[in-house]
Specification:
Blueprint: H1 9-29, H2 35-47, E1 49-50, H3 52-59, H4 63-75, E2 79-83, E3 91-95, H5 97-117, H6 123-140
Antiparallel strand pairs: 1-3, 2-3
Helix pairs in contact: 1-5, 2-3, 2-5, 3-4
């Protein structure tokens, strides 16, 4: 089979992802954050506390990379380690107020980029796009 005979969806998604990530990385760098750091902090904001393994699974990076990200965030005063309430031997990470401030600014910049990406699409199509992408992800997770 040749490329021209395929749907080409994966190629188009890769191009969109690349452009989106580049723009987000550029804006986050102005705040002193990387995209993986932003992903980890966003997850912590939602869940309050999380283990390194949870952060890795939900941030699309390896556990080793997440470990390094968390070391850097802890060093920079954005997160702290806390005792895991369910498993005494495990440690969770929790965001500090310093991270909450920078994360608020980061969310605003990322939202601005996302709005620019869907500019010209009616709200209904944006909602449909979110639903389609979620359905595609669910389908891929059933392999």
């Amino acid at each position: 089979m040749r490329f021209k005979d395929t749907l080409g969806i994966s190629h188009k998604l890769k191009i969109v992802e690349h452009e989106l990530c580049q723009r987000i990385e550029f804006e986050l760098a102005k705040l002193g954050l990387t995209f993986p750091q932003y992903a980890v902090l966003s997850y912590l904001e939602e869940k309050n506390t999380a283990t390194n393994a949870e952060l890795a699974r939900n941030s699309s990076v390896t556990p080793q990379t997440t470990n390094k990200i968390m070391q850097n965030l802890e060093r920079d005063g954005f997160v702290t380690k806390v005792q895991n309430l369910e498993h005494g031997l495990k440690q969770d990470f929790k965001m500090k107020p310093k991270a909450e401030k920078i994360l608020c600014a980061a969310h605003a910049r990322v939202n601005e980029i996302e709005l620019k990406m869907v500019k010209g699409l009616p709200k209904k199509q944006v909602k449909e796009l979110e639903e389609i992408l979620s359905k595609c992800l669910r389908n891929l997770n059933t392999f």
